[in-house]
Design a protein that fits this description.
Structural class: alpha/beta
Radius of gyration: 23 Å
Strand order of the largest sheet: 1-2-3-8-6-5-4-9
Largest sheet: 8 strands, mixed, barrel
Number of helices: 3
Order of helices and strands: HEEEEHEEEEHE
Distance between the termini: 73 Å
Strand content: 15-25%
């Protein structure tokens, strides 16, 4: 009987000690607002409006993409709350769309099919551009709900940080490939001025 009581006491101590070492996901571990002035990206953008609340992780999607067109920045908030900021190119004046949408699909090495309006303005545009170095969509494309807008790579990295596209959002190759792996269909996309 003494052995059983001793065993139960030891088991309780182990359980309580193990629970004491569990940390919640949002415990404060110190100040991580570190900005590296020599890093590859500038400081994260400051928004007039608060960032959207962390979205719960679901089977159909997760996280949130916020595009700040004035700052030429895309911020992806992962389902667990981590924020990643990327420089982007946005649409030229008169070619920008604002609002809320979502990711519908993704494609590796996409074909580019200029719209009828693009081909009317520039008849030299081909009907389709196959994947490769001359493809304006680069190596990855993330399609948004309206069907015409995309977040994609580019064959012109010098356009990043400018108003250069016909409404889509261009990213550096390594950035769009990283984002592509994290984002799922259903991910909410908020486009701000």
């Amino acid at each position: 009987m003494k052995f059983l009581a001793l065993f139960a006491t030891a088991l309780l101590l182990i359980v309580f000690q193990a629970q004491a070492q569990i940390y919640g996901p949002y415990d404060d571990y110190g100040d991580y607002d570190y900005y590296d002035p020599y890093g590859s990206y500038g400081p994260p953008p400051v928004y007039d409006e608060p960032m959207p609340e962390r979205q719960p992780r679901t089977r159909s999607g997760g996280g949130t993409i916020v595009i700040a067109t004035r700052e030429h920045t895309l911020v992806y908030t992962t389902p667990w709350g981590e924020q990643l900021a990327y420089p982007i190119a946005v649409g030229r004046d008169g070619k920008r769309w604002y609002g809320t949408t979502h990711v519908t699909s993704k494609r590796k090495h996409p074909e580019w099919r200029p719209t009828a309006g693009m081909r009317q303005k520039n008849p030299r545009l081909p009907v389709v551009v196959k994947p490769g170095p001359s493809n304006p969509l680069g190596t990855r494309a993330i399609y948004l709900a309206d069907g015409l807008l995309r977040i994609h790579g580019t064959n012109d990295p010098s356009s990043i940080g400018t108003n250069a596209s016909s409404g889509c959002f261009r990213m550096y190759r390594e950035d769009v490939e990283e984002l592509y792996e994290m984002v799922r269909p259903g991910t909410r996309v908020i486009i701000r001025r």
